[in-house]
Design goal:
Elements: E1 9-15, E2 21-28, E3 33-40, E4 47-51, E5 59-65, E6 74-79, E7 85-91, H1 95-98, E8 101-105, E9 111-117, H2 120-128, E10 135-140, E11 143-151, E12 156-162, H3 173-185
Antiparallel strand pairs: 1-2, 1-12, 2-3, 4-5, 5-6, 6-7, 7-8, 8-9, 9-10, 10-11, 11-12
Length: 191
């Protein structure tokens, strides 16, 4: 597996004001660039490539929506180097109106766990007061990992992805990083 996926912490940054789409920079906990993605604006079907750097010569991951304009979209995650289908992430559309929630699926679409916004009360409050940062937990079997937290900045969306509590390594880091990218890219479109 590529060394990009061997870290326990990542920072995913997206500049908010980008006319032609979004640019994501992914850093490890030593603040070294380990991933880069450009997403075109006005796409009906998301297709996100994660590259090793801004040169976009080496593709690491591909995240593809199964359908166009789907409120409960499922995004397949592929390892670009091996061609391996890693799993998928499915947004729970109606539930996400009140509180953002995603299902983590394995290669055969069996549920592995979930990604949930930290609290219903805070989620409702965030819908009114957008300056309250979002926080997400990953729920795997009987383990809850406080994995994603957003920092509020009017010009840059920043999500800290922290997998240190996943001591058993239950979540494939490639799937975890894809989830962080989707939280930054897809959930960020609601703002």
């Amino acid at each position: 597996m590529n060394e990009t996926f061997g870290y326990t912490q990542y920072t995913i940054r997206k500049k908010v004001f980008s006319i032609m789409g979004a640019r994501l920079h992914i850093y490890n906990n030593a603040e070294q660039l380990v991933g880069y993605s450009e997403m075109k604006a006005f796409k009906l079907k998301e297709d996100i490539a994660l590259y090793s750097d801004e040169n976009m010569q080496k593709e690491l991951l591909r995240i593809k929506a199964r359908k166009m304009i789907d409120f409960s979209a499922t995004f397949d995650v592929w390892d670009s180097e091996t061609g391996e289908h890693i799993g998928a992430l499915r947004r729970k559309g109606l539930k996400s109106i009140v509180k953002d929630e995603w299902t983590i699926l394995d290669r055969q679409d069996h549920e592995l766990g979930a990604i949930k916004e930290d609290s219903t009360f805070m989620a409702l409050l965030r819908r009114v007061i957008t300056l309250i940062p979002q926080q997400y937990n990953i729920v795997l079997r009987h383990q809850t990992i406080p994995a994603f937290r957003q920092n509020i900045n009017p010009f840059v969306t920043k999500i800290i992805a922290d997998f240190t509590e996943d001591r058993r390594g239950e979540l494939d880091r490639r799937l975890g990083l894809a989830a962080g990218i989707l939280l930054c890219a897809v959930e960020g479109k609601q703002e």
